[in-house]
Write a structure and sequence with these properties.
homodimer; alpha/beta; six-stranded parallel sheet; 12 strands; elongated; DNA-binding
Chain lengths: 336, 336
DNA sequence: ATTCGTTCCTAGAACGTTCCAGCGAGTTAT
DNA sequence: ATAACTCGCTGGAACGTTCTAGGAACGAAT
């Protein structure tokens, strides 16, 4: 099946009766060859099934035009980001090398393979790397952290504006007529969670609803959403007409708990999630949620990588992108 | 931040006062260096932050010990398979190069980059490649198709035994006491769907339930599941006490339609899906389903790739792996 | 004393590409 | 007519490794 040896530049050159240098010129589509020679060389290359050897190419040319990307293969949100990165990289004529993390393949390992592939910059969707890791890696290659708030003087950060997301959620609900809006928290020891909680309170304040602020203890999972709703319904006093939640997972849990308790969403109570996970768009969930602008995030990550490679001076190391509100079926005007 | 140039073998050699060849020997951990020299070279390499250049290494050595993997970054099931492949590749001391497909990056493009990276074999989780593509690709490098029934004389196939999956589903329901078991089909023009439908019928027959066979027109989406259940409930005659479905998506739709109609799952009706998607294990779905043996699938794909690289003769080009039944909360004894 | 093996090491040639310098033959400017 | 340039092309060096062949040193066997 597999033919003995893949054809090289030399094979094409010999067949076309020219030098390897000229074939190289033709293959790279740079000036330096006449139209007719160009056509002839291309014809031969096509006929022999020549494929340029990426490794030899970059070994010689010094620069690989390669951006290394680390991501978790078990999380669909990162799939979205990788999709965006591929598109963005193509725009600026860079290639992507992917290195996945799995439960058995940690981030250090993933980064090491990217380094060995001689990527010119790294885009990391990291969860576990430490400041020491960042120091070590960024000493070798520019690093862009995508999607997570990391504070390290040597890395660039492109991430979503969580605060703006919650402002939009609250604005949307207030516009619909809601006043009694609760927030279901994402749990203690979690910086993302506290940023979202604070933003909720600020947003309520901006609408003069400071006295209506109600933060419910919650968490990041469906089960957390279920429990929080049970507590909420058992509590005395007027029920909120709407809830914003830490994320979609807990929102999905909350919705099923509400419906199980005989309340309908959104007629009796509106729900807004966060993240726009794929599950949020499923027919039977149809969750209104805050969606990160993955296209912009990835475009900026790619261009920032390029800037660093080219040594372009960068003003702000951290760029924060406003998300959009994806209005679906779990929000409506309050009853009455 | 980034230091001028990454250290090379020559840098390490100069610093340690030995030849580059010797450093190479030490780095590859092959015999030919004394223990003390080895230690000294390693110390220098560590100190300089030397990382071997993967490209130069394989350019010289001819073989890359690299397996190219193509997968869809937008599908979590493939994430599972990639996870398995990483583990399997490590076992046999190969590295993986990932090339993702996205809506904007087609399979031809993905394969081309893998070829340029000089992978020694390709593991393709393909949906769109044609026989002509397979012919062209497999002429250059061994090809293993993972997870899909492709019939082409030049490629190996490792895939799940869909028929066995449906047999297990039906056996499980019969064992629980069900007799009136329906099957919700995955739609017409779809070879996977018809294999599953036929297997359902065969399984029913083996339990002497040929006269209870009931195939409902369905599809692959949640909406299809919802519609099929509505039709089922509107139809006259006794209701089935259990349904097997084409996949998890349609099963999730079916469940929500059943519950909306006031029926409880599994008390009134049992439901079995197919694929064990991540959504199936969510708390509020908790779907009994047929789960593919991804560990075995990926292990075999990797070793098959290795066999082809090494020219080991292969008896059967297609290997079909039995799936397992993941029993969760949507199946129970029938009422009465 | 010579031969033989081992062990540890090195020189130098590859691998397939790109880059640099340069060359002949036209064309244009002086 | 000469100089200067452009165009199309080529030879050869380089990139960072690994591989092959072999050499120096040393102990053991003859």
């Amino acid at each position: 099946m597999t033919s003995g040896r893949r054809p090289t530049l030399a094979d094409v050159a010999a067949d076309a009766g020219v030098s390897t240098a000229l074939v190289s010129i033709v293959m790279r589509d740079v000036p330096g060859a006449s139209a007719e020679t160009r056509a002839r060389v291309l014809e031969v290359a096509q006929r022999l099934g020549y494929q340029p050897d990426q490794r030899a190419r970059l070994l010689r040319s010094g620069h690989s035009r390669l951006i290394g990307v680390m991501f978790d293969v078990g999380n669909l949100f990162f799939g979205k980001l990788v999709t965006g990165l591929y598109a963005a990289a193509e725009q600026i004529d860079y290639q992507l090398t992917l290195s996945g993390t799995t439960p058995a393949r940690d981030e250090r390992t993933a980064v090491r393979t990217l380094l060995q592939d001689r990527c010119e910059a790294l885009v990391l969707m990291t969860a576990t790397l430490t400041p020491a890791d960042f120091a070590e890696i960024s000493a070798q290659v520019p690093v862009v952290v995508l999607g997570r708030a990391v504070r390290h003087r040597a890395v660039d950060v492109i991430r979503n504006d969580d605060a703006a997301g919650l402002h939009k959620a609250v604005d949307h609900l207030v516009e619909l007529g809601h006043r009694r809006i609760a927030h279901l928290d994402g749990g203690a020891r979690n910086s993302v969670s506290s940023e979202r909680r604070r933003a909720y309170a600020t947003a309520m304040g901006r609408h003069g609803l400071t006295d209506r602020i109600q933060v419910l203890a919650g968490g990041a999972t469906e089960a957390d959403g279920v429990r929080a709703v049970r507590r909420l319904l058992a509590a005395p006093g007027p029920r909120p007409t709407a809830i914003t939640l830490y994320n979609d997972q807990s929102a999905i849990g909350a919705i099923s708990a509400l419906r199980l308790a005989g309340l309908s969403v959104p007629e009796d109570i509106s729900v807004v999630g966060f993240d726009d996970e794929p599950a949020a768009s499923l027919d039977h969930i149809d969750l209104t949620t805050v969606g990160q602008d993955t296209a912009t995030l990835t475009r900026l990550a790619a261009t920032r990588a390029q800037d660093r490679i080219q040594g372009v001076p960068v003003r702000q190391r951290e760029v924060i992108i406003p998300p959009g509100l994806v209005v679906r079926g779990t929000t409506a005007r309050p009853a009455g």
